[in-house]
Amino acid sequence: MNLQQIKTAIAQGKIVHWSNDNYKVILDNKGQYLIDCILNGYCIGLTWLDGITLNGKESEFYIK
Question: Cα(45)–Cα(51) distance, rounded to whole angstroms?
Fold first, then answer.
């Protein structure tokens, strides 16, 4: 999935994961897209600081 596909899926209420089911892409209350580790609550940005480059390969994101 590319960045726009991920954002669209989340807007539609779909659950998007990265790499495996332990990493969920979320939209926080500040409008930030994050990758949340559900095991420990640690988050990283969905993208690098440029707002374009994903923190992971497009092929690693999927809808559950």
Answer: 9
Q: In the Cβ-directed half-sphere of 11, how many Cα atoms lie within 13 Å?
A: 7
Of the candidates 62, 33, 37, 36, which has an alpha carbon nearest to the alpha carbon of residue 48? 33
Strand runs labelled E in the chain: 16-18, 20-27, 33-37, 43-45, 61-63
| Nearest Cα residue to 14 out of 5, 23, 48, 29 | 5
Is the pTM higher than 0.90?
yes
Residue 3 — very low, low, confident or very high, per pLDDT cuts 50/70/90?
very high
Map residue 23 onto helix, strand or coil.
strand
Residues 6+ apart with CB under 8 A from 32: 45
